[in-house]
């Protein structure tokens, strides 16, 4: 058999034909290098605005492919592909409201991908994140479904929160001296407007709550001391608001009547309960008024 194969090869060579024999090996191929660099998204995150994927720091010169995606939170922003959104830019539409938008980028000749997520959920037209609200404050929160408030001048469903442009002058105690140890059970909700009314019903001179209630920025008279929950939303947007230091919330601690919650805006966490502390009502902290619309 070996002689026959040899003879066939020799005959093929004599005829000018090359016959290759597979020895069972395989040709190795150099893998593509991993894609290096970063991607960022720029543009206003509200309906009608265009987001742009910035890829200037990506290595290489191969063709770039884009896939825009959405999710219901910043952590799941890449969960769903937006049909047809495969270019460098993406125009935000009404269906995107309240969703987090991200982009995934790949480059020909490289393995892996890079991605980026917009820093806030999509807002509708009218008011933008960090923009000016009807009370002249800084808009820092939007909810498409809205939230109900039924207290004092508030009655109905609201979608936005704005914070006053600056802190109210001077630091304040949470309660007046006559009520440092008064248990105000109605001041334990997630809604600052409700808490503020409860505080002032029991303690009409409560410095922190009264300062917010008396504030009339933008000609509005419905400002309030934010709840623990609302204060944390402010913390998450502290750069836009321009807030730094320790701030009172309108939320009383659930045990006893001697302490209320405050938050340190100079610390790094955005999680409720982390860097929010129980402060004696006698302590002096900063105050920033908030209103809903």
Provide structural commentary.
The protein has 5 helices and 13 strands. The strands form 4 sheets. It has a 4-stranded antiparallel beta sheet, with no helix packed on it. Strand 3 and strand 4 (80-81) form a beta hairpin. 15% of the residues lie in helices and 27% in strands. By secondary structure, the chain is α+β, with helices and mostly antiparallel strands. Residues 1-23 have low confidence and may be disordered. The chain starts with a helix and ends with a strand.
Quick take:
By secondary structure, this protein is of the alpha+beta class. The chain has five helices and 13 strands.
Helix coverage percent:
10-25%
The main sheet comes to:
4 strands, antiparallel
Task: Return the average pLDDT rounded to an integer.
Answer: 88
Q: What is the helix tally?
A: 5
Descriptors:
single chain; 293 residues; alpha+beta; 4-stranded antiparallel sheet; 3-stranded antiparallel sheet; 15% helix; 27% strand; elongated; disordered N terminus
Topology:
Layout: H1 2-14, E1 40-42, E2 50-54, E3 64-71, E4 80-81, E5 89-91, E6 100-107, E7 114-117, E8 138-151, E9 154-163, H2 192-202, H3 207-213, H4 228-236, H5 238-241, E10 246-252, E11 259-264, E12 276-280, E13 290-292
Antiparallel strand pairs: 1-2, 2-5, 3-4, 3-6, 6-7, 8-9, 9-13, 10-11, 11-12
């Amino acid at each position: 058999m070996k002689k026959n194969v040899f003879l066939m090869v020799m005959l093929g060579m004599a005829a000018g034909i090359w016959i290759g024999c597979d020895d069972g090996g395989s040709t190795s191929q150099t893998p593509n290098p991993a894609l290096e660099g970063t991607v960022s998204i720029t543009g206003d995150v509200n309906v009608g605005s265009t987001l742009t994927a910035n890829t200037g720091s990506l290595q290489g010169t191969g063709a770039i492919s884009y896939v825009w995606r959405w999710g219901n939170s910043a952590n799941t922003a890449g969960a769903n592909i937006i049909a047809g959104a495969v270019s460098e830019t993406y125009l935000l539409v009404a269906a995107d409201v309240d969703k987090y938008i991200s982009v995934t980028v790949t480059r020909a000749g490289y393995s892996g991908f890079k991605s980026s997520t917009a820093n806030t959920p999509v807002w509708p037209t009218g008011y933008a994140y960090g923009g000016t609200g009807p009370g002249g404050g800084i808009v820092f929160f939007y909810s498409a479904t809205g939230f109900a408030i039924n207290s004092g001048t508030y009655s109905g469903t609201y979608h936005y929160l704005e914070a006053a442009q600056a802190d109210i002058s001077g630091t304040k105690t949470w309660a007046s001296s006559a009520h440092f140890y008064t248990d105000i059970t109605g001041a334990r909700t997630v809604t600052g407007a409700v808490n503020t009314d409860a505080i002032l019903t029991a303690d009409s001179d409560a410095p922190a709550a009264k300062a917010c209630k008396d504030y009339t920025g933008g000609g509005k008279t419905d400002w309030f001391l934010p709840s623990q929950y609302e204060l944390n939303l402010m913390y998450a947007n502290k750069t836009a608001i321009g807030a730094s230091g320790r701030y009172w919330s309108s939320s009383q601690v659930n045990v006893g009547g001697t302490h209320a919650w405050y938050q340190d805006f100079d610390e790094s966490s955005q999680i409720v309960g982390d860097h929010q502390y129980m402060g004696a009502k006698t302590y002096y902290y900063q105050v920033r008024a908030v209103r809903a619309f």
